[in-house]
Amino acid sequence: MKKSDRVRKVASETMEKIRRIARHIRNVEDNCLLLGEKLIDKGEIDLGHKLIANGYIHDASKFHGIEWEHMVPDEPLHEEGAKLKLKLAVQHHNRTNPHHPEYWGGVQHMPRLYLAEMVADWKARSEEFGTSLRDWVNDGAAKRFGFGKDDDVYSEIMEFVNLICEKPFENISK
C-alpha cells in the first residue's frame, strides 16, 4: 500500500471514529437540554441548568488517551490483548466520568445531577441501538447496578425517564 493510501485510510478511520463519538455526544447533549428544560419548568432551576451545561462536556474523555486508542466498539477483538485494552478503556471511562455509577461506587451514591445525565446517556444509547430505555432500566440496569423498584434510586431514575420519554401507547383493544 502506498503512503498516500495509508494516510487516506487512517484519515478515513479517524474521521469515522470522531463522527461516531460526536453523534453520541450530540444525542446526549439534546437529551440533557430536553430534560434540563423540563426540570427548570418544574422549578428545579439549578439542576436543569447544570444538567444542560453537563451535556456540552459529556464524554469528552473519549477523545484522549486510552479511551481514544482502545474504546472502539467495532474493532476486532481477536488481536492479542485487544479485549483487555478495551476493558481497561471502558473501566477508565466509567471511573473518570461522574455520570457513571462506577465513579461513585454504585448508583445509590450518585448525586441527582449525575443520575439525570446518566438517564440522558442511557436514552441516547437506547436510541442508537434501537432498544427500549424503560426495558433497560427495569431489566438490564436494575440487575447490573443492584437496585429494585422499591428503591429510592429507581424512583429518581424513572422520574427522569418519564420526563425525557414520550408516554408509551396504551392498549386500546381491551
Low-confidence stretches: none
- Mind telling me the C-alpha Rg? 18 Å
String of helices and strands: HHHHHHHH
Give a quick account of the main beta sheet: strands, pairing sense, barrel closure: none
Give the helix proportion (percent range). 55-70%
What's the count of strands? 0
Q: How far is it from the N-terminal to the C-terminal residue, by CA?
A: 65 Å
Overall mean pLDDT score? 92
Query: Helical stretch count?
Result: 8
Q: What structural class should be given to the helix and strand makeup?
A: mainly alpha
What fraction of the residues are assigned to beta strands by DSSP?
A: under 5%
Tell me the overall shape.
Answer: globular
Describe the structure in your own words.
By secondary structure, the chain is mainly alpha-helical. The protein is built from eight helices and no strands. It has helices spanning 3-41, 45-55, 65-70, 82-96, 101-104, 112-129, 133-145, 152-164. Helix 1 (3-41) packs across helix 6 (112-129), helix 6 packs across helix 8 (152-164) and helix 7 runs antiparallel to helix 8 (152-164). The longest helix has 39 residues, at 3-41. The relative contact order is 0.11. The mean pLDDT is 92.
